């Protein structure tokens, strides 16, 4: 059975993303492991060693009580969506969130990570947004990020952003397999800046990867990358976008520059990040 890791802070954003985790689990016959990571508070007063045991006990008990109250909320979401048959287990961990996600992903052989992400407010990125970009960059798993205003709808039209290079093919095959599960159509899109040569040979090589009429290849020339992608999403009624993480910090940059504000946060469709 495949496994889906669902890191959560039990916020509205996370609970909304949980529906996608449930739907994905149901589609691929997977179990879900929900994960909540907490930190102990910083203590600065003198003679802290005298109270350290008490601090640990009180803090851990508090987190456990809050966690115990929130778990039934997730079960209720499953029941309301007629997905209470999906196997769900829960983990409460003291530690660093990214490190613990990396550990459990490796130890449990996680196939997908599904998590909610919030937008930006001015120049300050929210906690979930920061975590999502770090997970996309640093954790070797397929990550599905669900924007806060994204409402679940079946995935019928999936957009794969690509350069039609050889190192994109494995990611594409994963997207292709997922699209088959969803019975979704795939649109592959390359945006070529006007100063660069549009090498059509790579695109022709990719035609060998297409074995049905449910996949189309596109190449558009223009310097307004984000604008072209947004227009494509709108005109083709895209309801999931997928990308290969080519290099470290790619998604941090994506979430910080104008492309992120237009694409990652201002459109309400899931973003599928496939680690190299």
From TrEMBL:
Residues 1-146 form the UspA domain. The lineage of its organism: Bacteria, Pseudomonadati, Bacteroidota, Flavobacteriia, Flavobacteriales. Belongs to the universal stress protein A family. InterPro entries: Rossmann-like_a/b/a_fold, Universal_stress_UspA, UspA. It holds the Pfam family Usp. This is Nucleotide-binding universal stress protein, UspA family.
């Amino acid at each position: 059975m495949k496994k889906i890791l669902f890191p959560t802070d039990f916020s509205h954003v996370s609970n909304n993303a949980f529906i996608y985790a449930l739907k994905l689990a149901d589609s691929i016959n997977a179990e879900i492991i929900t994960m909540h990571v907490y930190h102990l508070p910083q203590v600065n007063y003198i003679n802290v060693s005298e109270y350290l045991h008490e601090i640990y006990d009180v803090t851990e008990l508090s987190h456990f009580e809050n966690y115990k109250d929130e778990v039934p909320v997730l079960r209720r979401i499953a029941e309301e969506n007629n997905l209470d048959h999906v196997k769900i287990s829960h983990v409460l961990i003291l530690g660093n969130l990214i490190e613990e996600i990396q550990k459990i992903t490796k130890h449990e052989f996680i196939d997908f990570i599904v998590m909610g992400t919030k937008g930006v407010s001015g120049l300050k990125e929210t906690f979930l947004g920061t975590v999502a970009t770090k997970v996309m960059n640093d954790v070797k798993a397929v990550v599905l990020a669900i924007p806060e205003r994204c409402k679940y709808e079946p995935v019928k039209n999936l957009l794969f952003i690509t350069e039609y290079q050889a190192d994109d093919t494995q990611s594409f095959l994963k997207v292709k397999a997922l699209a088959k599960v969803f019975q979704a159509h795939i649109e592959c899109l390359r945006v070529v800046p006007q100063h660069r040569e549009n090498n059509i040979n790579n695109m022709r090589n990719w035609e060998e990867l297409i074995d049905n009429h449910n996949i189309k290849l596109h190449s558009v020339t223009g310097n307004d990358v984000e604008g072209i992608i947004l227009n494509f999403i709108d005109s083709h009624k895209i309801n999931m976008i997928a990308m290969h993480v080519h290099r470290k910090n790619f998604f941090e940059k994506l979430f910080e520059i104008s492309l992120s504000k237009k694409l990652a946060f201002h459109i309400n469709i899931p973003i599928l990040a496939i680690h190299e």
